[in-house]
Amino acid sequence: MTPRELDGSSAGGQFLRTALALSVLANEPVRLEGVRGDRPTPGLGHQHLAVLETMAAIADADVSGAELGRETIAFDPGLDGTGHGSEEPARSRLEGGEYAVDIGTAGSVTLLCNAVLPLATVLESPLSVTVTGGTDVAWSPPLDYLRYVTLPLLRRFGIQAACEVDRRGFYPDGGGTVTLRLAPSRLESIDLVKRGSLEGLRLYSTESASLADRDVASRQADGALERLNREPGLEPTERCETTAASPSPGSAMVLRVDHGTGVAGFTALGERGKPAERVGEDAADATTRFLEGVAPVDRHMADQLLVFLALAGGRVRVPAVTDHVETRCELLEAFGVEVGLERDGETAVVSVVSPLDRLG
After folding, report:
1. Do domains 4-188 and 195-291 have the same CATH topology?
2. What CATH code would you report for 195-291?
3. Which residue numbers belong to the known binding site?
4. Helix, strand, or coil here: 78?
5. Which stretches are tagged as biased composition: Basic and acidic residues (predicted)?
6. Is residue 350 within a helix (H) or strand (E), and if so which, with residue range?
7. What pLDDT is recorded for position 262?
8. 312 torsion bin: left (phi>0), alpha (psi -120 to 50), beta (else)
9. Architecture of the structural domain at 4-188
10. 324 carries an active-site annotation
């Protein structure tokens, strides 16, 4: 089968992760050029190589270019009934199993998990992936965002997934270990256009054990709540403070807003020299901006949901048409998914009427 040609020269790692997931889901080979072409250091980094190798192992794919720094890769899923190079791929399903991957740096565990999550829709048997790396690091969702925002929202639409945490991993050493467990799932059509009434606020504040004597987790939560006191109806329904073993000192804050149609999440990470209270305030400020709008999902969830929208069809109102949203829509269209984008002031409604024909 002729590979689908894709150009990532104006995109980052999310283009690679989404392309690999779509390749498996559609049971089609792809050839990616210009991998992470718009980054200061283009090509495969440690975490991107880990995603590629993990997806290749799960899908029994033939791969070329799986080397650090490579900007061109080829990926051909080896699913039952396909046969590498076959011109007529047969409809098939994806076997589960148990896999382990060590990113080798503080590369993002959560981004790797996000790449694997859509595969739940085509599994024949349970799949577990144990990942070692950075659980709470810059430029990616903190672990508690995955656990308490992403997975609960996807469960509403039929994804059966759970996340088990063995150890947290902060920058620069990483060393966190998480196991993502997926069961065969039937995804329902997604309808997230209107935000329901506000139902509550949940706080998840984490500190490494090395910061416990400074009460960092508690101070982060206090900072967030003090900033949010001016918002009526935002009394916390849950406050969870965690002290976690980790090779590196670090902290993370996640605020979750519950409303009638779903959940939204807002995050901040601790930094050297940054007061813990300020970390909580940053997450609170993002929450306030969300509440001033009308979209039912936050900016990060907006582009994460688009792959699932392509699989099940439906509509999602996004708070803004970010570069990630635009790039992901273009990638879905490259796989033959007709994507509608209707702008409405600052927000936009992304829709899919004819979902992706999965696995051939």
Report:
1. no
2. 3.30.360.20
3. 300-304
4. coil
5. 224-241
6. strand 347-352
7. 93
8. alpha
9. Alpha-beta prism (3.65)
10. yes
